[in-house]
Amino acid sequence: MAQSITRLSGVNSLSGTIPATNIANSTFDNITALPSAVPTGKPVLLSTATASSSSSIEFTSGIDSTYDIYQFEFINIHPETNNVKFTFQSDTGTNTNYNQTITSTDFISQHNETGTTTELGYAIANDQAQGTAFQPIGQLIGNDNDECAAGTLQVFQPSSTTYVKHFIANTNVYRHDNYSREHFTAGYFNTTSALTRFRFKMSSGNLDSGKIKMYGISA
Amino acid sequence: MSITRIQNANAFTGTIPADNFANATLDNVTLLPNAPLGDMVLVSSATASSSASIEFDLSSYKEYKFFFVNIHPSATTGNPLFQFQCSTDNGSNYNTTITSTHFRAGHNENDADQYLSYNTGKDQAQGTSFQSLTDGDVGGDNDQCQSGMLQLFNPSSTTFVKHYIGHNNSVHANDVCGTVFSAGYFNTTSALTNIKFQMSSGNIDDGKILMFGIN
Q1: Do residues B3 and B10 touch, judged by C-beta distance below 8 A?
Q2: Average pLDDT by consecutive 10-residue portion of chain B (215 residues)?
Q3: Which SS3 state, helix, strand or coil, does residue B160 take?
Q4: How far is CA B132 from the centre of its chain?
Q5: CB nearest to A164's CB, from B43, B110, B144
Q6: Contact A163/B144, CB-based, under 8 Å?
Q7: Which of A139, B20, B160, B191 is the most buried if burial means most Cβ atoms within 10 Å?
Q8: Mutation for testing the B interface, residue in A155, A188, A190, A193 having most B CBs under 10 Å
Q9: What is the torsion angle, in degrees rounded to the nearest 10, for the CA atoms of residue A200, residue A205, residue A206 and residue A210?
Q10: Is the ipTM, as predicted for this complex, more than 0.85?
Q11: Which residues, including other chains, have CB under 8 Å from residue B59's CB and lie 6 or more apart?
Q12: pTM for the full predicted model
C-alpha cells in the first residue's frame, strides 16, 4: 500500500496556504477571460468588422456611457473604385439617416514617389461648416492592388447629452497617383443628443477589403 | 481519511498543474499584480468640478498618455486656454523650462473662414509659463468644451530632456472648430515629478482627465 500524503511540499502546515511557486503555470495560460471586477484600464476591443465588397461598415451596438472614448483603427482600407474618399457619419437612437451636424477641419501633408512635390496645406474640400454630409478622413485613395488607407479615429464621449461630441482622426493614404498623403481631421458633432452608431463608407463604390476595429477606453 | 494525492499534482514537488484550477475566469479576482503587461495601464483619473487645477503624480512609466474628455471652463470671458506645466520638486513649483511649437487649423460654423497656421503667441522659447494645449479660447456655452490627448515621454529620465506631444480639438466661444497641435520638451535633466492642468482664467468647471502609463 502506498504511503499517505499528509501535506504538500511547501504548503504552510498551519494555514494550509499553497505558495505561488507550487502553481506550475505562472503565466496563467489557461485563463481565457478576466472577471469584470478587474480594472484593466486599457483599450478594450469591442468589435471588429472586415470589409468584403461592402457598401458600408456600421457599428450599431456597444456605443454608450460605458466608455469615455471610442477609438477606431483602420487597417488596409482598400476601395473598389479609384480616387475616392474614406468617410464616416453618426446617428442617434436606432435612426439610420447618418446625417448629424458637423463642423470640422482637415489639413494634409503629402509627398509623391518621384520626390518632386511636397505639400502641407488646409484641405477645404474635406471640411464642413454645420454640414450633415459624411465626413472625409482620407482622400484620393487609389484602388491598385497595393493601394489602401490606414489610421485611427477617436470620438470623445458620444453618449454625452450635455456637450458636443469631438472627434480626432489621423490617417495616411496611398494616393491613386502615387503620393503618400497624411490627413489630420478634427471636428465635432454639434448636437447634445447621444450618438449611438457610426457608419463608414467610401465616397463612391464599395469597401473592397479592409478591417475596422472599435475599442473602448475609460477610467 | 488521509488524502493520498491531489489529482495530477507532482508527487515529489507538490506542484499543482494549472488544469487543476476550476475557475478559468477568476471571478473572485479584483486586482491584477503589477506584472509587466506591456500595454496601456490606467494609472489615475480625475473629474473636474469647479476645480482650480488638476494634478497628478508622475513616476517611472516610460510614457504617459492623457485623454481629456469634455473639458468645460467656468469662465465665459477672458479667453480661457487649457494649459499644463510640470514640476521637478514634488509639486512645490510648476515652472520648468519649455521650448515648444504650436500650430492650429480652424473652421467656423458659418463657413466664413478656414485657416492652418503657426501660432507664435502660444509657443515658448525657454519659457517657464504654463503651456497652452488649445488655441483662442475654449467656449463656455453649456454645450462647448474641448477634448484631446497629450503624450509625455519618460518624465523620470535624469539624462534627457522630456518631450511631449499634444493634439486637441475645441469649440471656441465664437463658434469656431479649432484643432491644435503642440509639441515640445521640458529642457531639464531633472525628473519630472508632477503634472498640473488648469485653465488660463477661471476654473475647470467640468470634464474628465484619464492618465495612462505605458512601459
Answers
A1: no
A2: 61 67 57 58 95 97 96 88 98 97 96 95 96 90 95 96 96 95 96 98 96 92
A3: coil
A4: 14
A5: B144
A6: yes
A7: A139
A8: A188
A9: -70
A10: no
A11: B156, B213
A12: 0.83
